[in-house]
What does this fold into?
Amino acid sequence: MVIGLGPGPAKWMTPEASAAIAAASDIVGYKPYVERLILRTDQRAHTSDNRQEMDRARLALKLATEGRAVAVVSAGDPGVFAMAAALFEAIEEDPRWLRLEIAVAPGVTAMQAAAARLGAPLGHDFCAISLSDNLKPWAIVERRLRAAAEADFVIALYNPVSQARPARIVEAFDLLRTVKVAATPVAFARAVGRADETLTLTTLGEADPNLADMATLIIIGSSETRFIARDGARPWMVTPRAYGARR
Amino acid sequence: MVIGLGPGPAKWMTPEASAAIAAASDIVGYKPYVERLILRTDQRAHTSDNRQEMDRARLALKLATEGRAVAVVSAGDPGVFAMAAALFEAIEEDPRWLRLEIAVAPGVTAMQAAAARLGAPLGHDFCAISLSDNLKPWAIVERRLRAAAEADFVIALYNPVSQARPARIVEAFDLLRTVKVAATPVAFARAVGRADETLTLTTLGEADPNLADMATLIIIGSSETRFIARDGARPWMVTPRAYGARR
It folds into this structure.
């Protein structure tokens, strides 16, 4: 089973995910995610480093073929820029793997947790784009950013920076600034739900892309998205369900 | 508090949502969603019909101003085409409402539940588009569909049909067929996680848009999305994390 743990806190982990972890003999995952879990002494943890998704997928499939009850864990939703795709990418390498019973447990993903804390920025049509270009050409990222901006989607940016290419996020903002107006609301949501959570509201014109690190999810509004000011509290960030009503 | 109940079954409702419902004195929501819940005799249910989102939002804000502990419930994620946006749209109507403590509890939304059952169709960049044109001009829907297709996003379609405009989904498919190839994998995911769940895999060329009803979520693949055949079981639908690797 491929399991989404949610963004961090236990309150966002589904009962399905908790039950699947309790039922597993073997837990396979990126080390910091496995370390979130409290495992029994009869459960075996198989941890690995970042970017070893394919190795993790193959190990999980191999253990399952041996009759183990395997839980592959991902932060957030395993179906969104996470382990589910890696597992199915590997599955044709061994005909026995195609006969395994595999289930995916969905989870709350980072953009949803960020949106919940901010108000309702994803209240209308939106796109989710990973800025990582480890596995895709940067040209397709640019094409998607431009299309999403031109069609006035709200845009959620995953994986905004990587150690290998810290300038990608700056390029992305430069591109978006050629299409969207400077007043467009932007939020940097870092480590949402965790002790070191940081929410920064700004605008596309004012945003400092270097605020983003690997734990940051960025939401860039549509032309309808706005901040609603409150006394003594962070403004709400809201994308109304209606389009064009204010014009 | 605005709460996401997930797509239906209790296994997909977060502990945060369950706790918030238990703590509420008043539960406000669309009747079929409130009816999913087991309430205590000291809790008051305020149910209303579909399309009365703004009335529900105002009632919830009014009750909260009176000191009640209010839970506004949405299916799926309240932040995705649901009640959170409606609540914040209403919030400026009364200055007292802006001083309320409001929290949003995220939830698993329909496209995630559908994706989990299908494999990993949202494994790469994707868009979520509501086909409802109650609150937005159809022209913006068309513009977004075209942009999403041209930039080769996976596309999740919410609210594919309405009683008032049953032909919109046919128009949407006609438009997508002018941009994307006929072999593009498509899934109709109806009532996912419920007793009457129906999953239909097809291609853009072969798809019958009339398969969709109000409980259907449609996922249309990118050029990378494919079906992985299995003996005696539904194929997996997968969008790999890599882009252009097969070219």
Summary: Chain B touches chain A through 75 residues (CB under 8 Å). Chain B has a mean pLDDT of 94. The two ends of chain B are 48 Å apart (CA to CA).
